[in-house]
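lol so apparently i was supposed to do this last week
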Amino acid sequence: MNAAVLVPAAGRGERLGPGAPKALRELGDIPMLVHAVRSLLAARGVTAVVVAAPPDGVAGVRDLLAAHLSPRSPVQVVAGGATRQESVRLALAAVSAEYDIVLVHDAARPFVPAEVVEAVIAAVAEGADAVVPALPVVDTVKEVAAVDGAETVVRTVDRSLLRAVQTPQGFRRAVLARAHAEAGGFGTEGATDDAGMVERTGGTVVVVPGSEEAFKVTRPFDLLLARALLERRAAEAAIASTDRTEIDVVR
Ligand code: CTP
Ligand code: MG
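anyway here it is w/ cytidine-5'-triphosphate bound
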C-alpha cells in the first residue's frame, strides 16, 4: 500500500540556538532535512514526500533537495506556515488525490529507521484511522504546580501507562483532513502532534513500537547524539563492505 509523507520543516529551531532554520542545519555535511527525506524514501511504500519549507526559503530548499537526491525522487516542496499545524495543513493540500494513506514526519527526526515507517504504514493499511510510533517512558514522571511560589510535586504519574510519541504518525487521509479542518474549533493552533488532533475529534489512535533512532533533534545536546549516530552508521557500513569483500575473496 503506497503512502505520501508530509514533512513539516518550516520551524526556526529556537531551542537549538541561533543559526539557520533547524531543518537546514548540517549533520555530517548534509542538511538534517535531506537525512530525513532519505530515511523516508528508504522505506517500502513511501512513494511521495511533500516538504513544508520555511516560507521565505522554498526555492532554496528545492535547490538543496535537487542537489542531494536522485533526480527521479518523488519529492515536492511547498511553503510552510507560522505553526507546525499550519505547515502540515499546507503540505496536506498538496498531496495527490490518489493517496489514502498519509504520514506526517518531523524533519527534525532525521534518522527514523525504515522499519518504523513501514510499521506505521502497515497499521494504517490494516484499518487503523491513526497510528503513532511510541516508546515507554524511562524517567519517573511527576506532575507539579506552583505552591507559594515554589514548584512543588502534586503527584507521581504511573509510568507504565505512559508513552513518548514520535513520528512518522500515519493516518487515513480523510481522518487527518477532518482533524485539521475541525481543529480550528478547538482553538488548538499550535498542536505539537497530529494524532492529538484526531483524539480530540473522537478518533482512535493505535500505537506501534517506535525507535530510539527516531529521536527528535531539539536542543544542542541532540546534535551530539545525531553526530554519534552518523559515525556509528558509517562504521557499520564500512564493516559491512569489508565483510562483503572477504566473502568475495573466499568465493
Ligand atoms: N515546524 C514547521 N512549521 C512551523 C514550526 C515547526 O514545519 N511553523 C516543524 C519543524 O521544522 C520540525 C517539526 O515541525 O521539523 C517539529 O517541531 P520542533 O521540533 O518544535 O521544531 P522547531 O519549531 O523548528 O523548533 P523550536 O520549537 O525549538 O523553535
Ligand atoms: Mg517548535
